[in-house]
Amino acid sequence: MSSKDWIEKDYYAVLGVTKTAPADEIKKAYRKLARESHPDHNPGDPKAEERFKAFSEAYAVLGDDAKRREYDEMRSLFGSGAFRRGARPPGQPGGGAPFDVSDLFGGASSGGGRFAGGGISDLFSSIFSGGAGGGGALGPARGRDVETEVALDFHDAVRGVTLPLTLRAPGVCDTCHGNGAKPGTQPRTCPVCQGAGVTTRNQGAFSFSEPCRNCQGVGTVVDEKCPECQGTGGVTKTRTLNVRFPAGVADGQRIRLAGRGEPGERGGPAGDLFVHVKVRPDEILGRTGDDLTLTVPITFAEAVLGTDLRVPTLDGAVTLRVPPGTPSGRILRARGKGVSRRDGQVGDLLVTLDVVVPAGVSDEARAALETFAAQTPPAAREHLDARVRRFG
Hints:
The chain is built from eleven helices and 15 strands.
């Protein structure tokens, strides 16, 4: 929604409440109307869908205390008559030129104007300062940001790597070097705005500024356009960048390369390049924050008797001691064998032990297990047996 919508639409009437209605009354009215007109309750009814959108738009403003105050202030000011079509400024009985609210917003009703959704503070900072967004010149436009995605191997993401990144995106025109003018010529200062990028016009007692239509707010005019970029200062081309991915970069992380995006128009600053990182999973190692994770199967005998376990790390294998009587699921920690942090610290390798129970055993093994079971003290099950007797 735009600031023009705030002036033209009575959101209180849309929800059927008074201007002094408290917040809970507004919320209650919205819920009732939204429930009645919800598309799920009115399938195939476009009018109900339009009503639902209108109720939601009204509540988005009136349900927010800050937006509601701005909305009330704006409608109060514009409702006083100072900005109505054909209003006469004070001290001018004959009246000034007719004023159209669409002139004020410059077609912002679609939501794309300079004041769209910016609130009353943005609107009046422009009206009373005499310039766009505080009175400064618009100047050359900044280039747009560019996004791309890169897939890294697990080990490269953990250790860090520098990779060439090939992009096909707008870049600075090599013919005019970004100023948009034909070689041998230069852009000249706009004679209409004198290089300011904005023009000011008086409307009664008020002064309004808007981007200069002669130079489109750039402040300069190109008489002979560059034949390569047609005056924009940028062309689509293939370029290769060497991008350094720091050690420990994580899956889903976004890396910003300042000034590597699209070039600005007519010498304006370039946008940024954002690289989204996707990390391919490793077949053995996992990762949790700065710690690497690993699950290692061990036999029942190794868990009971204990053993020395060789496990892989990023820097080669290490030996971990499995103490006798280790239960399944126990985690062993190899300190300093994880991911390097930016502050110089290093995470750990967390090894989870998984006791594997064989599906079948030989007769000799079964006899040994039966002997073992006969010699195992029942103390470990006394607590469980007590609960069985109590609840069984």
